[in-house]
């Protein structure tokens, strides 16, 4: 028995040692490709298996963070350690059987619910937005099936539903295409009724999520510089707000990390934007905290 326990302990030590080395290497790769970017104030880092639960989306109810993984949801205190609720198998079995659902994207919070975009990854015929209880993270039974690939709808999502952003003040949520996004589609928060299309003055590529602040949509992307863009919801004007990493050649595209979702919450340290990214080796995720840019140029 002592030998078995010793071997188990040795395996854990070796595993943690390997994870530690990979985490350091991932951090070095991330930092090496940051370049001259808009600086963040601080970062909450997760390393190891928990990374998979904090790898797709982030949002907040003002008192905690919510993260999405490929198939999971987790609610975490602001200390980035205390888990308040978790749903490791958040995609309902009925979705898997009926729609082939396999992937959760960038999430958003409103009125006690986490709005989660769920798609049949790489098929893109059945994009869904489902509601989960903000306390327990259990599926509420409420969802909308949006028009997907092959639909002749004017607001069809042809590459899944990679993100959703709630706008409680105006009683709606927004979705849009993943690549080369040229317009946003608004739906009623409660009835799921289609409301309107918002044309954008210029396209934004690879939107992974975002939130509203002062009446504008701040979209986090996985483009070449993992940029955050400001989109005016009144006139569709698009402005690059800041870059998360410097540009790098395509053959090392993931070095510098993969840009994921973003949420907004004014904090005591002056930060407002909280952007999630995966590390270069996918064994760490980082929630970086940014202060807003003070500039009259952004419109």
Description:
With 299 residues, this protein is mostly beta strands. The chain has a single domain (2-290), classed as Lipocalin. It has two helices and 21 strands. The chain has helices at 2-32, 93-99, and strands spanning 42-47, 57-60, 65-68, 73-76, 83-87, 103-104, 108-110, 113-119, 128-133, 139-145, 165-167, 172-175, 181-188, 194-204, 207-213, 216-221, 228-232, 238-242, 258-264, 273-278, 284-290. The strands form five sheets. Strands 6, 7, 8, 9 and 10 form a five-stranded antiparallel beta sheet that branches. A four-stranded antiparallel beta sheet has the order 1-21-20-19, with helices on one face. Strands 2-3-4-5 form a four-stranded antiparallel beta sheet, with no helix packed on it. The longest helix has 31 residues, at 2-32. It is globular, with a radius of gyration of 19 Å. The model has no long low-confidence stretch (mean pLDDT 89).
């Amino acid at each position: 028995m002592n030998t078995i326990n010793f071997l188990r302990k040795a395996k854990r030590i070796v595993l943690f040692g390997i994870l530690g080395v990979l985490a350091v290497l991932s951090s070095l790769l991330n930092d090496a490709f940051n370049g001259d970017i808009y600086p963040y104030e601080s970062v909450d880092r997760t390393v190891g298996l928990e990374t998979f639960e904090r790898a797709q989306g982030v949002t907040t109810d003002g008192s905690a963070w919510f993260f999405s993984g490929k198939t999971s949801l987790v609610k975490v205190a602001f200390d980035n350690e205390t888990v308040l609720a978790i749903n490791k198998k958040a995609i309902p079995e009925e979705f898997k059987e009926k729609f082939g659902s396999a992937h959760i994207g960038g999430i958003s919070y409103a009125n006690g619910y986490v709005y989660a975009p769920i798609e049949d990854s790489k098929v893109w015929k059945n994009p869904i937005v489902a509601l989960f209880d903000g306390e327990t993270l259990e599926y509420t039974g409420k969802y909308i099936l949006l028009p997907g690939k092959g639909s002749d709808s004017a607001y069809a999502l042809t590459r899944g539903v990679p993100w959703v952003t709630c706008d409680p003040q105006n009683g709606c949520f927004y979705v849009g295409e993943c690549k080369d996004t040229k317009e946003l589609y608004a739906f009623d928060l409660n009835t799921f009724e289609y409301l309107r299309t918002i044309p954008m003055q210029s396209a934004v590529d690879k939107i992974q999520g975002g939130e509203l602040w002062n009446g504008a949509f701040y979209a986090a992307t996985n483009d070449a510089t993992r940029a955050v863009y400001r989109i005016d919801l009144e006139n569709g004007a698009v402005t690059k707000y800041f870059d998360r990493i410097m540009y790098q050649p395509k053959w090392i595209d993931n070095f510098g990390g993969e840009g994921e979702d973003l949420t907004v919450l004014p904090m005591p340290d002056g930060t407002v934007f909280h952007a999630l990214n995966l590390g270069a080796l996918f064994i760490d995720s980082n929630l970086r905290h940014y202060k807003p840019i003070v500039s009259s140029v952004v419109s």
